[in-house]
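User:
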Amino acid sequence: MIDTFKNYSAMNFKEDWKLVTVLIGINYICDYCKNKVDPHTIRASGVYHQRAFQCADMSPSSSVPTSVELVKAADIKVIAALGDSLTTGVAANASSFAQVPIEYRQLSWSIGGQGTYDDVITLANIVKLFNPNVTGPSPTFSITGKPTTLSQTGLNLAVTGANSGDFPVQARNLIDTLKNYSAINFTDDWKLVTVLIGSNDICDYCKNKTLYSVDNFISNINQSLHMMMDEVPRLIVNVVQMFTMEPLRQVQKPTEACQLQKVFCSCLALPAENSTDLTEIVALNREFQTKLEELLNSSTFFKNDFAVVLQPYLSSTDLPKLPNGTVDFSYFAPDCFHFSVKGHEEMAKGLWNNMFQQDGEKVQLANLTTSVTLICPPTDHPYIRTRPRALSSAAP
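Assistant: Predicted structure:
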């Protein structure tokens, strides 16, 4: 276009005002199915699998537990997930700009259900080793911005682009879906829901500092969790602590796709190094983490058949690095913002391990450079840890 302007005889290139209208991107979505990489095919390159995960006790309880503190992995009958594009699996298996709009829900760290554990390591596929008939894992992919059905998503009800203000709507959708899903015994089945949300609040904070404030973030989380506690019996909620986002600024490549980071998270990606704006965003990120910890380490969201557990394993994780100290891009999608399958697998394994580590002893990953090794539920306490810190001095 620039060269055309310069050489167009009917135009005074220097003095004429010019109006350009741009509409682009539709063909990327329309043509994704023509791309050589099948959305159902997991690229082998750089993807590590911890094979042969086997535990001494993988059986369910002898009878359906009535206490939230006595639920084994095999007792979980329903698995679900809420959140944003990290949970919808945006670009997780993408190898080009054109594939970035694909939501690889079937590969998502917390809920992906493609194949088995041997195909891809997700929390749902780990749970399937204990209960092959668990309901809810995502079976296939979807496209960002297009309507979805439960046959595509399973119980991955996360929405790309969602912020904490959208969380109550997702919670309501989950509750209504659980109540009406024919494969679920709403009253008797134990359910596991994983939530990760808040990154988009940080990414958009500079655009509306009131809407994306810490107070609003905590209010949205509080409201949503109370809805679940009041209406859903036999439910365990994993709330994954949001990660420290500043290191993402180092994930940079001179590619078209990598420039999307500046679109997805402009309030983090665009401020100059050591600027006041960047300092404010970093401080906000820490405050989100601190306030969420304060909310969830109380006994507010704990009763006989319900618990919310803060899983902190990503809270201070640094970027994965190569031996020479540079960023290991095999963990990231082409957009330099979302995780690849390799990153999703590490997230899944870290979450699983946190679920069986008691409060105060939950491992926080220093980085993703060293692959996480899955642990088995301890033989002396084979139950998902649900007791909040506020009650940790009481007898289990």
